[in-house]
Amino acid sequence: MDEVGLLIDKQLTGMLGRPGTALFGSKIMHAKKRITAVLCCNADASMKVPIAIIGKSASPRCFTGSSNPVPGTWYTAQPNSWQDMRTMKDWFQGCFLPALEQSGQFKGKTVILTFDNASSHVLSMPEDYKGDVKVEFAPLPANVTCLFQPVDKGIGWSFKAAVVREKLIARRPFTDEYQQRLKETEGKPAALLGYAYGQSVTMKDALQWAKVAWDSVSKETCINCFVASRMLTQQQTEQLSCLSEKYTLEKLAATSKTHTHSLSL
After folding, report:
1. Which residue has the higher pLDDT, 91 or 191?
2. Half-sphere CA count of 91, side-chain side, radius 13 A
3. Which residues contact 12 (CB under 8 A, 6 or more apart)?
4. Nearest to 201 by CA among 168, 162, 158
5. ∠ CA(165), CA(166), CA(171), 5° rounding?
6. What is the reported pTM?
7. CA 200 to each of CA 128, 131, 185: distance values in angstroms, whole numbers, following the listed order
8. Are 213 and 35 in contact (CB under 8 A)?
9. For residues 124 and 106, what is the distance between their CA atoms, to the nearest angstrom?
10. How far apart are CA 193 and CA 200, in angstroms?
C-alpha cells in the first residue's frame, strides 16, 4: 500500500508547435490543487483494493447528496488532502477489510500489508472485527521505500499516466460531440457539470478518472513491480515471473486474434 499525489487541475506543460512559433502558457499549467490516491494490490495482481481518494471537502457539491457517486471507489476528506492517522484508519476499516472479505479468496488466510514508515501509517485490527481475514502489518524500515516499495517501482507511475490520459480523453474540444455538450448545458450550474462540459475539474471527475486508471494498470505491471522490489523469496519471484510471461503471451495472442479478424473483414 502506498499513496500518490494527483494535481487534478494541472494541464500539460508541453505542447507542439511549428518551428519559430512563440507558444504561450497559462497559470493552469502550474495549478497546485492536490488530492491523494491510495493504491493497494497483491503480488500476483489477483486482488486490487478499490481506489481510494482523499480530498478536502467532506461533501463536494458535485456529489449532489450522495456520499460517493462513483461505484467501485472510496472517498474521504482531510483538510489538506493528506493521509493522516484518522484517514488511514478509515481506509483500513472502510475500504481494505471489506474488499478482502468480498473477494472471498482470503478467507481463513493471513494477509501481510506492507507500507512505508510514515507517521500516519499506524494500524491495528479493530477489537470488534469478526471477519475471517487475518491481517499482519509489515512497515518498511526508514529510507528504503524507494528500494522495496512496489508502488514506487512503477505501479504509481502507470496509474498517474493513465489518469492524465483519461483527462485528455474527457474533453477533446475540437470534436462535434464536445460542442454539442456545451450547447446542452447552457444555464446549468458549473459545479455540477465537470471537466467534460468545459468547466473546471470536479471531485466526481477525479474519482471517475482514478477508477478507470486503476483498472487499466495491468497485471504484468503489478507483478513486475513486486519482482523488482525484491520483497519476495527467490521461489516466489520465479513463480511471479512465469505468471507475468503467461499474461503477456495471452495478451499478445488476443491482440493477434483481433488483428486477424480485422484483416479478414
Report:
1. 91
2. 31
3. 29, 164
4. 168
5. 105
6. 0.84
7. 43, 42, 14
8. no
9. 18
10. 9
Map grid coordinates 477533446 to a residue: 172
Q: Mapping DSSP to helix (H, G, I), strand (E, B) and coil, where does residue 153 land?
A: helix
Kindly state the cell numbers that stand for 100: 478482502
Q: How far is CA 95 from the centre of its chain?
A: 14
Question: Beta strands 73-77 and 110-115: pairing type?
Answer: unpaired
Average pLDDT over residues 150-175: 87
- Report the pLDDT value the prediction gives residue 69, as an integer from 0 to 100: 86
The SS3 call for residue 220 is helix
* Amino acid residing at 263: L
In 3D space, the residue among 231, 260, 234, 245 whose CA is nearest the CA of residue 1 turns out to be: 231
DSSP secondary structure letters along 234-257: HHHHHHHHHHHHHHHHHHHHHHHH
pLDDT for res 255: 64
Predicted local distance difference test score (pLDDT) of residue 260: 47
Tens of pLDDT, residue by residue over 207-231, are 999 999 999 998 888 888 888 888 7
- Give φ, ψ of 244 to 5 degrees: -65, -45
Cα-to-chain-centroid distance, residue 107: 25
Residue 115: which H helix or E strand, with range?
Answer: strand 110-115
- The whole-number pLDDT of residue 28 equals 66
Grid coordinates given for 126: 479493530
* Three-point CA angle 229, 233, 238, nearest 5°: 85
- Mean pLDDT of the region 97-119: 90
The amino acid at residue 75 is Y
